[in-house]
Structure to design on (922 residues):
């Protein structure tokens, strides 16, 4: 068979592949001279005669023609859209033996590898790529409907905002605008706790009711999230019906490979969906692991192939919960198998998330705005650092040491053979130091009066452990240090013998446990509103995962709700505290930030300063955070008094205005207004814009209003021991900033100098500066890992802040920990006279390079070439140089990849790449 296939010309080979695709999808493939309409419901006839010539394939369903396929060789894949006019001509032609003058609605172009499809019934017919040709019954069902899905989407009625938050209304309305424009992918970014799932269910309800959607998939990446989503669908009550969602529509949470034919909403983990497409069984334990925390992933995953039981047209819409974790690597092929609109939900998008959803962001609602609106509570950070926890220790030769088996906990003693030094990151994995754990927990216990003054019990606390074994050690020591019994501290992981859901329910609703210890079960997506403290005893590799873990504490809770589990609480939940025992907050993992960065300055001083003209971001942010916290404690009478004194503005509106005044996007937009739309603003224009925005927000502040706010604050906080809080907080939470910064600078420069000949990136910068364009992302990553192991105190962001203070510069945070590291190396090696974000260096050098090229005698770059050069520039801001292989990855692959760049630049391509690598890091 292979010999015969190889003897065929390319077009015949393509037709063989198309025949196989048709048969797999349930079509009977026949020749024009031997048609048998009784052979099956769907008949694909080759070389069917029309009045403009024979069509490659005409598709018949129930003996009626409904579509055509234009076949081309595989080599046409990159230009298949160029034959759409030809295929449409066959669809509009008169067919032999049929008198109908109506054009056939379904038009395909295929090479057997690439297939594109157009539905002529759409309001603006646009072709899209499919995994495979639709099944006959699918097209029959589509024909039976009056309009196509895309036409029905254009007729969606206005949204009734009853019962919805403002951010939810914006997200739904913008998503439906995206649908009406037929944009295939959309991203909704909403802060944890702001109601992402409720927003999604409202959208699902409208799509089923008003757009007659066939089936919608709600895709999650852990079993726990799927169970929670199911409960939210069950509880959902629409504003225009007195029946619950599940009384109106069939919802199925997939726990096996069976997909119910009458299910209108399916809830499924992406792990199970992949197994179903592969036709393989799935161990339920695989659904309990967060893919973002998997250390090992297959480099070449088994490809998804056509599955007639779950064809690509199974779902009209796919809602991807926590999409920042499940749209890459192994899982991307699962999502792109389906011919469906893709809607991403996340609180923490990154550059790859924006790229996958093609920058179609239908809503942006960050944590800071959610705090300002009273949807979330803010947080503060309290750091605990121990000598062994930061530096590790040494086991001396000949000392007796204990060995313990990880699983059985069986113990034995032996003599240490030789001196052995272990690093901090080996703690609780390779080496367990009980006293290190005890020191952290004892410090936490002793400082609770400082962190949560006036409390009689430990606030509900969640401890993140490194491993299941580490969690057991923490539980035993916590019970000892707090002098409490078993109910006080419990483990919540998938491996626990006690039902984890039962323990979680107790943690959420009962007095005990006060402390829960987990590895990752409740790191994401779990609602524990009374939670007021997160204790990190493990580091986190993923910035987004860290944001999700922080999200466990952001939920709001009124005073009555908090007192049910924490009786000594004096106010509603106003904030939560991160106890950082491993330096997790000192790297660039955190996207959101604590609003209050000046805890030692009083509310009255902050408000007076803003009224008198103070405009810096820290002061404005701290004031907004203080007022947001106060807003949680107000009764109706207090709110009315403030609104009268503030000329009609509520305290929530005042906070929102302050937060928006320091929002980078709003500052950038105002700066462009100041400078003009065609110019790029600099720091001076941004500072001017920020000052103007803050000034507008500050107009509400008057002496009487500030006195009123401060008086209410004192009334609400009179039971708290301020003296104890002030003394201990300042002793533990702050220090001499300038002295600390100078010490960090010296330690960092000493480390670079000592290792300049041992670490490749440092060698190039220090010894061979002309070759710094050869520094790669991998080299900087290696340096960062070495720093993390050798000197965790020298976290790049921490050192960056030290240099910013010493250089007396106010600059934006670097794009990543690695770009911070490059900026610091440039500063130490005097390439930059003062601390400068690497992204600014690349931007500046790019402008200079383009200007010099355009000023010369050679040809100027075209607009399309400039678009590619800007993509390369943006790539180099975070990856430091461009390699040829990078052109086959996002975002270049979406624009045509290596082949397209060659078309644009020809033989000059490699020279342009090398020149940019050299010039942009100058």
């Amino acid at each position: 068979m292979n010999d015969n296939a190889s003897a065929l010309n390319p077009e015949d080979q393509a037709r063989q592949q198309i025949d196989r695709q048709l048969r797999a999808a349930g079509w009977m493939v026949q020749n024009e001279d031997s048609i048998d309409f009784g052979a099956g419901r769907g008949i694909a006839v080759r070389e069917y005669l029309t009045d403009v010539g024979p069509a490659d394939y005409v598709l018949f369903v129930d003996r009626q023609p409904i579509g055509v396929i234009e076949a081309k060789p595989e080599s046409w894949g990159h230009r298949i859209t160029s034959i759409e006019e030809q295929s449409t001509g066959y669809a509009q032609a008169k067919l032999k033996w049929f008198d109908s003058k109506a054009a056939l609605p379904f038009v395909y172009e295929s090479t057997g590898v690439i297939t594109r499809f157009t539905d002529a019934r759409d309001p603006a017919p646009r072709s899209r790529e499919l995994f495979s040709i639709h099944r006959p019954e699918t097209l029959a069902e589509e024909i039976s409907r009056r309009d196509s899905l895309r036409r029905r989407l254009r007729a969606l009625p206005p949204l009734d905002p009853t019962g919805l938050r403002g951010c939810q209304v914006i997200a739904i309305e913008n998503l439906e605008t995206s649908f009406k424009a037929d944009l295939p992918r959309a991203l909704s970014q909403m802060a944890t706790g702001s109601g992402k799932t409720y927003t999604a269910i409202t959208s699902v309800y409208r799509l089923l009711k008003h757009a007659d959607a066939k089936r919608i998939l709600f895709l999650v990446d852990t079993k726990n999230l799927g169970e929670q989503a199911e409960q939210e669908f069950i509880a959902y009550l629409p504003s225009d019906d007195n029946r619950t969602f599940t009384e109106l529509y069939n919802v199925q949470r997939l726990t096996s490979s069976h997909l119910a034919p009458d299910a209108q909403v399916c809830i499924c983990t992406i792990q199970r969906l992949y197994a179903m497409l592969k036709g393989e069984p799935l161990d339920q334990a695989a659904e309990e692991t967060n893919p973002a925390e998997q250390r090992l992933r297959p480099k070449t995953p088994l490809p998804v192939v056509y599955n007639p039981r779950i064809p690509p047209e199974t779902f009209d819409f796919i809602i991807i919960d926590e999409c920042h974790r499940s749209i890459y690597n192994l899982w991307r092929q699962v999502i792109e198998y389906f011919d469906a609109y893709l809607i991403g939900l996340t609180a923490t998008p990154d550059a790859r998330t924006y790229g996958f959803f093609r920058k179609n962001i239908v809503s942006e609602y960050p944590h800071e705005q959610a705090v300002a609106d009273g949807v979330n509570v803010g947080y503060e950070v309290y750091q605990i650092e121990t000598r062994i926890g930061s530096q590790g220790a040494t086991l001396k030769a000949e000392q007796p040491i204990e060995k313990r088996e990880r699983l059985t906990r069986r113990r034995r003693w032996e003599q240490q053979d030789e001196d052995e030094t272990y690093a901090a990151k080996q703690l609780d994995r390779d080496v367990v130091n009980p006293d290190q754990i005890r020191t952290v927990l004892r410090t936490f216990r002793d400082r609770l009066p400082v962190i949560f003054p006036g409390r009689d019990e430990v606030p509900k606390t969640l401890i993140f452990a490194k491993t299941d074994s580490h969690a057991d050690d923490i539980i035993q020591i916590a019970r000892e240090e707090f002098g409490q019994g078993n109910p006080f501290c419990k483990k919540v992981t998938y491996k626990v013998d006690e039902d984890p859901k039962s323990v979680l329910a107790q943690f959420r609703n009962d007095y005990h446990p006060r402390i829960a210890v987990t590895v990752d079960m409740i790191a994401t997506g779990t609602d524990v509103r009374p939670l007021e403290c997160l204790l990190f005893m493990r580091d986190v590799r993923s910035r987004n995962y860290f944001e999700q873990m922080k999200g466990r504490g952001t939920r709001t809770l009124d005073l009555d709700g908090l007192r049910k589990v924490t009786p000594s609480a004096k106010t509603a939940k106003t904030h939560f505290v991160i106890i950082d025992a491993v330096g997790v907050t000192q790297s660039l993992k955190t996207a959101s930030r604590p609003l209050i960065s000046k805890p030692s300055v009083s509310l009255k001083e902050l408000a007076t300063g803003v009224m008198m003209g103070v405009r810096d971001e820290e002061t404005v942010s701290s004031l907004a955070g203080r007022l947001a916290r106060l807003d949680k404690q107000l009764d109706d009478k207090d709110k009315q008094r403030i609104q009268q004194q503030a000329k009609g503005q509520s305290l929530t509106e005042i906070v929102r205005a302050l937060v928006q005044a320091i929002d980078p996007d709003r500052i950038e937009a105002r700066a462009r207004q100041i400078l003009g739309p065609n110019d790029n603003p600099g720091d001076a224009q941004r500072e001017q814009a920020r000052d103007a925005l803050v000034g507008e927000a500050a107009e509400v502040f008057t002496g009487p209003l500030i006195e009123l706010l401060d008086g209410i604050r004192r009334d609400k906080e009179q039971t708290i021991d301020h003296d104890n809080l002030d003394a201990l907080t300042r002793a533990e939470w702050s220090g001499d900033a300038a002295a600390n910064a100078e010490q960090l600078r010296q330690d960092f420069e000493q480390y670079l100098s000592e290792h300049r000949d041992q670490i490749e990136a440092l060698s190039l910068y220090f010894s061979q500066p002309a070759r710094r364009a050869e520094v790669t992302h991998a080299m900087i990553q290696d340096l960062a890992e070495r720093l993390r192991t050798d000197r965790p105190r020298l976290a790049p962001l921490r050192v960056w802040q030290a240099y910013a203070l010493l250089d007396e510069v106010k600059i934006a945070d670097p794009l990543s920990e690695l770009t911070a590291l490059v900026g610091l190396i440039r500063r130490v090696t005097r390439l930059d006279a003062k601390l400068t974000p690497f992204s600014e260096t690349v931007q500046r050098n790019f402008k200079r390079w383009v200007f010099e090229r355009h000023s010369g005698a050679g040809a100027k770059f075209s607009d399309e070439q400039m678009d590619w050069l800007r993509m390369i520039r943006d790539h180099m801001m975070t990856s430091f140089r461009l390699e040829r292989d990078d052109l086959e990855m996002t975002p270049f692959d979406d624009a045509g990849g290596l082949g397209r760049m060659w078309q644009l630049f020809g033989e000059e391509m490699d020279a342009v790449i090398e020149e940019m690598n050299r010039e942009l890091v100058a």
Notes: Residues 737-836 form one domain. Residues 222 and 467 are 18 Å apart (CA to CA). The first strand starts at residue 28 and ends at 31. Confidence is low (pLDDT under 50) at residues 717-736.
